[in-house]
Amino acid sequence: MIRTLLASALLAIGAGLIVVSSLGLIRLPDVYNRMNAVAKAGSLGLICILLAVLLLLPGVRTAVVALVAIGLQLVSAPVGGYALARAAYRAGSPLADSTRYDELGGRVPPARRRAARE
């Protein structure tokens, strides 16, 4: 009973995080913010769902599969998000107007320079 309630809560939290991630993908202003939302919220949502599966189907095989999947997700999502953001930056994808400082270029984006002059 307790396991089922905890698994249900984890499933709801995981699904909620994935929905938030998808909303971030639609609503955020530039490719860098979108990738950040998907990499973080999507990963946490998937981890919550995998933990819920582990609670609902206890067993050694399930535990091994779930923990390996969680480990791979924790390693691959940040690295993949970073690589995609770096590729987008090198391809010249524009920064949002609200960006204050360009960490990779070491400069203030052109839109912010124009606003500061006016």
TrEMBL record:
Keyword Cell division assigned: no
Ranges that cross the membrane: 6-26, 38-57, 63-85
GO molecular function: sodium:proton antiporter activity
One Pfam family it belongs to: PhaG_MnhG_YufB
Keywords: Membrane, Transmembrane, Transmembrane helix
Domain of life: Bacteria
Stored InterPro entries: PhaG_MnhG_YufB (IPR005133)
Entry's family note: Belongs to the CPA3 antiporters (TC 2.A.63) subunit G family.
Protein's name according to its UniProt entry: Multicomponent Na+:H+ antiporter subunit G
Classification of source organism: Bacteria, Bacillati, Actinomycetota, Actinomycetes, Micromonosporales
